[in-house]
Fold this protein.
Amino acid sequence: MGDPTQSMLILQRTWFLTFMLFSACSVFEQVKIVTLEGTTDARTYRYIQQISNKIEIIGASRYPDMHKHIKSDTFIDIELSLTRYGKLSHARILTPTNDPKLNEQLFEVINYSAPYPPLPEELDLDKLIIQKRWHFTPAQ
């Protein structure tokens, strides 16, 4: 007969792997990807507006001269992933501007602005991914 300790070890490993697979398969997140322009739900629209306003207010206070070096209309597309509790789980630039300093400053403001307000309960989501375009115009 084989070593009973060896059999027990194999059994424990098998149970552990089965438990890990079951745990991984039994977790389903409710995730929604939205853009401000494509949102038809008023609650989601208000929430995204709230997030955008927070970022813009903090950005204006941290970088009051941000617009001074912009020579023409500039767009930057950002993606934010927020947990149901408002924690920023990731942020990334989808379409950068030609100005690396502006890209870096906006990315910094997004991270500095966290945490964000919790997701509205009625959305019943674990995660909300927001894709937002910011438009910067030259200083007048």
User: Anything to note?
Assistant: The first helix runs from residue 4 to 25. Strands lie at 31-35, 74-83, 88-95, 127-136. Residues 5-26 have pLDDT under 50 and may be disordered. The two ends are 87 Å apart (CA to CA).
